[in-house]
Sequence to fold (66 residues):
Amino acid sequence: MAGTVYDVVCGMSTELGNWSESVEYEGKTYYFCCDGCSGAFKKSPEYHLQNWAEEHPGVDPTPAVA
Ligand SMILES: [Zn+2]
Fold:
């Protein structure tokens, strides 16, 4: 659903706008529940994105808005 964002580190989801932590990576904006999760993503984005893709096939963690 448009407007839903997923934290690829801990797996939580929320409506776009509820989380203030975000990280730009390869042209996309990823959102996180806390600075602990965004910090972990910044250290190893490929690791967390690969984990997300394996555990949630077909689920885009970024909101479907430009
Ligand atoms: Zn989190």
